[in-house]
Amino acid sequence: MKFKSRKLNRLFFTLPALMLTFSIAAQEGENLVNNPSFEDAQSRKLRRLGDIERADGWVSATGSRADLFSADAGMPDIQTPNNVYGREEPKDGINYAGIIAYSYREKENRTYLTAQLKSPMIKGMRYKVQFYASLAELSKYSANRLGVHFSRKPIGTDNKIPAIILKNEEIHVEHPKQEAFDGMYGWDLVCGEYIATGKEKFITIGNFSLDADIKTERVRKPRDVKGTQIIAAYYYIDDISVQSLGANEKCDCNYADEANVRTSTVYQRAPEITPNMSVKDKIQQHGIYYAFGRYDVQMDGNKTLDKLASLMKENPDIKVQLTGHSDAEEAENPAEKIVSLRRAEYVRTLMEEKGISPDRFVIEDAKNSKPSPYLTESDDEKLKAAKNRRVSFRVL
User: Which one of 154, 160, 384, 387 has the fewest beta carbons within 10 angstroms of its own beta carbon?
Assistant: First the structure.
């Protein structure tokens, strides 16, 4: 009997150990977030804002509902890429969510996204956590302190409240520099490492800080965007992941590299136009240049498009090839690899708003295969990259 008891004891001790080993192995490399890009959704049934629960597994943490946007939605206000708050291409797939992260004097309640993880977190295990955010163009403010909170039970309430406020140590992942996210027409990364206390089952995304602790900035509405700004910082959210890290694996968020490239100067070049130059040569002298990861068109770029529109109206038979280019860093970065195509497509959209038919354009995505003709040996690496991030024009 004693032998059998010892065997049984060994068996019952071994099984949990094996199950724990299997659980750890199963989590490594797997995204613990169900439906991380909101693609599994009743998209065709979307009819209004506040319908985040149409996305499988996702709900709002308070009675103030988060939003779901989809290319398949039945109403223009909640479609992608264009919707009631602006325009943004999804980071992944055709859907994304939207939340209010800050509102001036609490004019609007903040909203939050929450979901149950595929499996509980394991005590002491390290996790890489990240998501992407993009400021909507009709936001009157930008804000920092977007973050992630993990919990054993759902947090929040069914009531409509101004905000969920947590202590700083309870905001488990946010940008290490706590920068205000003011980027439109592109996605900003929020990434960090979290060490589990054990059995956390839920993830919640939003802004959990007091207004006094939030850095905000007033935002000017882009000239090409129609509509009234909301007195809030509204963010699109997409591509969420929680993945366990191996014993010797680093949580590599690439913040240093991104910050180094993003702060580089956006290249500007005045076209060299002469009186005897042909229309073709005049058009091909122009170009639009970009910051890292962006495809919005700033004031100088918009003036270039005004000139291009004028030339095309004066010459209605001309067709133009729009070629989107990226620098080497963008082309190799999975998060930015299609930004060159988006640059060309967005220029075509702006030209249509200026009265030029989209049929008069052909889109080419060159990525980083065609270096700028204006590179020189004296250019440093930042300037070379800035010259390559562009849209060029060629008359067909």
Answer: 160
